[in-house]
Specification:
Structural class: mainly alpha
Number of strands: 2
Radius of gyration: 27 Å
Mean pLDDT: 76
Order of helices and strands: HHEE
Shape: elongated
Strand order of the largest sheet: 1-2
Strand content: 5-15%
Low-confidence stretches: none
Largest sheet: 2 strands, antiparallel
Distance between the termini: 62 Å
Length: about 100
């Protein structure tokens, strides 16, 4: 095959792959330097939910996991995305099983 031993061909491909990864890492680190670091972005995800004041006539429920106040109609917490007790008002579980044969 073209007069090149397979072991040299494999070694060449590994070197090219490592050079490509190094270049991609270098480009990514330069781009992050202009807009902030990945660590700062992850810290923003860990920040608590922003305070929202609901109207007096809006029923609310507190999240059992993080304690954030949510409107009672929310199915998931706006702070930690855990499922809220009761889910949204008016939603009912489906009564027919999938594939039961009824149309």
């Amino acid at each position: 095959m073209l007069g090149i031993e397979p072991s040299w061909l494999l070694a060449g491909l590994v070197v090219v792959h490592l050079l490509t990864l190094g270049y991609a890492y270098w480009r990514r680190s330069e781009a992050e330097g202009a807009t902030g670091t990945r660590h700062e972005a992850l810290e923003a995800l860990d920040s608590p939910a922003p305070e929202v004041e609901f109207d007096d006539d809006t029923p609310t429920v507190d999240c059992e996991v993080c304690g954030a106040e949510n409107a009672a109609e929310y199915a998931f917490c706006r702070g930690c995305a855990s499922e809220l007790p009761g889910g949204p008002a008016g939603d009912e579980a489906p009564t027919a099983a999938f594939g039961s044969g009824s149309v």
